[in-house]
Amino acid sequence: MNIGIIGATGLVGKKMIELLESSNIKIDNIYFFASEKSKGNEIFFRLNKFYVEQLTDENILNKDLSVVFIASGNDISEKYSPILAKRNVYVIDKSSRFRMDENVPLVVPEVNFDAIKETDRIIANPNCSTIPLAMALANIDKEFHINKIFVASYQSVSGAGKDAVNDYDNQLKDISEGKSPISSYFKFPIVGNLIPQIDDFYISEGLYGYTKEEGKLINELQKILRRTDLFIDTINVRVPVKVGHSEAVFVETDLECSVDEIKKSMSKMENLVILDDFENSLYPMPYYLEDTDSTYVGRIKQNPKNKKSFSFWLVADNLRRGAAFNAYKIFEKLIEMGKIS
Predict the structure, then answer these.
(1) Do domains 2-126+323-336 and 130-156+194-318 have the same CATH topology?
(2) Residue 113, Cβ neighbours under 10 Å: how many?
(3) How many CA atoms lie less than 13 Å away from 304 in the CB half-sphere?
(4) 130-156+194-318 CATH pick, 1.10.290.10, 3.30.360.10, 3.30.1240.10, 3.30.2010.10
């Protein structure tokens, strides 16, 4: 099996490498691609030293690849995904370029792996805030039929990439030296602050006043759950946490449910862990959940005046569960089905 990773030196690319290296999957050849500035960087993988190749047509298209992971921007995916797919290469794409394409499956493997058809070669991964939410709600929707979802997300700086993390670290350094933090990446300081804007705002479309990040969550969740009729409202906030996205979620259902029934329904989901013992202060927090691959849910509660609504809190590592691990699980399941060998 021959594997390519585009964006190998980025935050998600590095996590992808970690997951592949620690797996038992037999890999004949692996190739690491990135931009010109990363060309020649050393990567150690399973005790061997590799050099990052600059992503060019010549470098990637002359290789006999089985699967390519794209942990890069939309422009890269737009150019290379169709070309590779035509060569019968599976493309597992973390960019947002093809997520809402009706001919491309948008997959959380624990939820809707069956969306992948026999002829599909491009497989889109959802946004890092959508993946854990879909996992928490998929079984609830099947059993109690959701009619409304309200979500406030609290998203870490690593969700914005390597430059954002460097900026965050520099701001912490400024504060430790008694200086006022100045951001080189965000519009405002992020340390000691909350920024209620992630990505640009919609100006003239149906989601006027929403950010594009919020639009992603709404549209992607509807597609994954196969519920284009589902009402979803959300506000996404950038917070001064390095790794780990958190979400406060409020749900209304058509059928009555109890907290015990909600927990039972959620617990059926593979790679979802319920941490919910408020009497002992047990609930998910990003500080403790970095480098984990599950979705963690807690603070599950219900107002006794309404048995058709409930709320909960979830946390997931956005680089692993919300990105690299999702792609890895798709890859693993394709191997199990004999699609990749």
Answers:
(1) no
(2) 16
(3) 0
(4) 3.30.360.10
Looking at the structure, give the CATH architecture of the domain made up of residues 2-126+323-336.
3-Layer(aba) Sandwich (3.40)
Joined tokens for residue 170: 């520099």
Count Cβ neighbours within 10 Å for each residue of 193-218 and write b for 16 or more, e otherwise: eebebbbeeeeeeeeeebbebbbbbb
Confidence of residue 205 (pLDDT cuts 50, 70, 90): confident
Interatomic CA distance for residues 76 and 95, integer angstroms: 9
User: Helix (H, G, I), strand (E, B), or coil: what is residue 80?
Assistant: helix
Contact 299, 312 (CB under 8 A): yes
Sequential DSSP letters for 133-201: HHHHHHHHHHHH-EEEEEEEEEE-GGGG-HHHHHHHHHHHHHHHTTPPP--SSSSS--TT--BS--SPB
> Which residue intervals of the chain are DSSP H helices?
11-22, 57-61, 74-86, 109-112, 130-144, 162-176, 212-224, 259-267, 325-336
- Please give the pLDDT value at position 341: 80
Q: Which among 10, 1, 12 is positioned nearest to 324, based on CA atoms?
A: 12
Phi and psi angles of residue 123, each rounded to the nearest 5 degrees, phi first: -125, 120
- How far apart are alpha carbons 190 and 202 in whole angstroms? 23
- Token pair 């959380």: residue: 108
Q: Break the chain into its structural domains and give their ranges.
A: 2-126+323-336, 130-156+194-318
Q: Which residues are part of the catalytic machinery?
A: 128, 245
* Assessment of whether the complete model's pTM goes beyond 0.90: yes
d(CA 341, CA 327): 17
pLDDT, tens digit (0-9, with 9 covering 90-100), for 264-286: 999 999 999 999 999 999 999 99
**75-85 tens-digit pLDDT:** 999 999 999 99
Residue 6 DSSP SS3: strand
- Mean pLDDT in residue range 17-46: 97
The per-residue pLDDT for range 53-67, each reduced to its tens digit, is 999 999 999 999 999
